[in-house]
Amino acid sequence: MQIRQFNPVNDNIEIVADLIISAYGGIEGNTSYDNNSRRIVIDLIESGNNFLGKENIYLCVTDNTLCGLAIGYTGRPWSRIKTLFDLLMRLKLFHIVNYLIISSQLFDKAYTPNLTEDDFYISVIAVDEKYRNRGIGTFLLKEMTAVAKEKNCRKIVLDVDKDNTAALSLYEKFGFRYAELYENNIHANTGDNGCTMIYSLN
C-alpha cells in the first residue's frame, strides 16, 4: 500500500471522479450522481486551483489498484471567480443547470471553509467499498499528516457529519478534537449536522 499524488496523465480520472462523488454523496446525501455530475467533477479536477484540483488529490494504491484517496490543501486563497468562469466557458449549455446545482452544494459549504495560510484542510477521505475495514482510512490520515508537515502547516482541519460514527471514531482515535468555533470566531461551514475537527501538528 502506498500513497502518491494524482497524475492526470497516468491515472484514470473517471475512477477518481466516481470515488470523489461517492464520498460527497455520503456526506450530503443528495448529490446527483450521473454523467453530468461526473463531467463537472472531472472539469474541477482538470482545471486545478480549486478544492477538487488535481494538485490536491492523493491516491492510495495497492497492487496498482486505486483503493482510496484523500484531498487536502493549505489555506491559501483560491480564485473562486476565475474557477467558476473557466468552468462555465468549458461546459456545454445542457451542463450548466446541473453544474449550478452541484456547485451550490459544494462551493459554499464544508468544502470551502475559512482557513489561515498555515492550516491544512482535508476535504475528502474516500475508501473504495471493496477495501474498507483494512486500515486504509488511518493510512490516508497518517500520510496526509506528513503532507501537511511538509507544507509547514500548524494544524489539520476537517469537517465531518455528526451521524458518520465510523469517521468520528477514526478521527477521535487519531487525535482530532472538536471545534465549536473555528479560529477568529468564524463558525465552520458545516451546516446543522456537521462539525469541525482539528489536529494540532505542533
Concise summary:
With 202 residues, this protein is an alpha+beta fold. The protein has 6 helices and 7 strands, in the order E-H-H-E-E-H-H-E-H-E-H-E-E.
Unreliable segments of 5+ consecutive residues: 26-32, 104-112, 181-191
The strands making up the biggest β-sheet line up spatially as 1-2-3-4-5-7-6
CATH class: Alpha Beta
CATH superfamily: Gcn5-related N-acetyltransferase (GNAT)
Number of beta-strand segments:
7
In percent, how helical is the residue content? 25-40%
- The tally of structural domains comes to 1
Give your account of this protein's structure.
The chain has one domain (2-200): Gcn5-related N-acetyltransferase (GNAT) (Aminopeptidase, 3-Layer(aba) Sandwich), CATH 3.40.630.30. The chain is α+β, with helices and mostly antiparallel strands. Strand 4, helix 5 and strand 5 form a beta-alpha-beta unit. It has a 7-stranded mixed β-sheet, with helices on both faces. It starts with a strand and ends with a strand. The protein is globular, with a radius of gyration of 16 Å. The model is unreliable at 26-32, 104-112 and 181-191 (pLDDT under 50). It has 6 helices and 7 strands; from the N terminus they run E-H-H-E-E-H-H-E-H-E-H-E-E. It has helices spanning 13-28, 35-47, 80-90, 93-106, 136-150, 165-174; strands at 2-5, 57-62, 65-74, 119-127, 155-161, 177-179, 194-200.
Question: What secondary-structure arrangement, pairings included, does this model have?
Answer:
Blueprint: E1 2-5, H1 13-28, H2 35-47, E2 57-62, E3 65-74, H3 80-90, H4 93-106, E4 119-127, H5 136-150, E5 155-161, H6 165-174, E6 177-179, E7 194-200
Parallel strand pairs: 4-5
Antiparallel strand pairs: 1-2, 2-3, 3-4, 5-7, 6-7
